[in-house]
Amino acid sequence: MSAPDELAVTGLECWAHHGVFDHERRDGQRFVVDLVLGLDTREAAASDDLHRTVDYGTLGAAVHAAVQNDPVDLIETLAQRIADVCLADGGVQWARVTVHKPDAPLQVTFSDVALTITRRREGQ
């Protein structure tokens, strides 16, 4: 069953060393992450209790750490890692993750490179 509610955290900026090229790994670059999380907020709304919802401050810090650590070649791998962090929170039923790589090494003029994935908790 899909969650009736969505929580968005957008524009989470991180400096990290992901990429295929040596200079990306050496120098690093900016990554921007957008999250949309499916969850049921009715209990939290009724109780006004943070423990009955997703703490987006804690989750944002966990995503930030996941982006900054352990460099990988592909934004596909990074997006999956972020989705796994989001789904580790028991209140998140599904996660839509967009990883922006605005400084990607393209030889043409562009404004952004972005990958969006959606992952669901097992059985959802």
Distance between the termini: 6 Å
What ranges have pLDDT less than 50 throughout 5 or more consecutive residues? Answer: none
- How many domains comprise the coordinates? 1
What global shape is seen?
A: elongated
Radius of gyration: 16 Å
**How would you write the strand order of the largest sheet?**
1-2-3-4
Approximately how much helix is present in the residues? Answer: 25-40%
> How many DSSP-defined strands?
4
Largest sheet: 4 strands, antiparallel
Order of helices and strands: EHEHHHEE
Mean of all residue-level pLDDT scores: 95
* Proportion of residues in β-strands: 25-35%
CATH superfamily: GTP cyclohydrolase I, C-terminal domain/NADPH-dependent 7-cyano-7-deazaguanine reductase, N-terminal domain
What is the name of the CATH architecture? 2-Layer Sandwich
From the 3D structure, determine the CATH topology: GTP Cyclohydrolase I, domain 2
GO molecular function, one term: dihydroneopterin aldolase activity
Pathway: Cofactor biosynthesis; tetrahydrofolate biosynthesis; 2-amino-4-hydroxy-6-hydroxymethyl-7,8-dihydropteridine diphosphate from 7,8-dihydroneopterin triphosphate: step 3/4
Enzyme class: lyase
Catalytic activity: 7,8-dihydroneopterin = 6-hydroxymethyl-7,8-dihydropterin + glycolaldehyde
Structural write-up:
The chain is of the alpha+beta class and 124 residues long. The chain has one domain (5-120): GTP cyclohydrolase I, C-terminal domain/NADPH-dependent 7-cyano-7-deazaguanine reductase, N-terminal domain (GTP Cyclohydrolase I, domain 2, 2-Layer Sandwich), CATH 3.30.1130. Helices cover 31% and strands 30% of the residues. It contains four helices and four strands, in the order βαβαααββ. The protein has helices at 22-27, 42-47, 56-68, 75-87, and strands at residues 5-16, 29-39, 94-100, 114-120. It has a four-stranded antiparallel beta sheet. The radius of gyration is 16 Å and the shape is elongated. The mean pLDDT is 95.
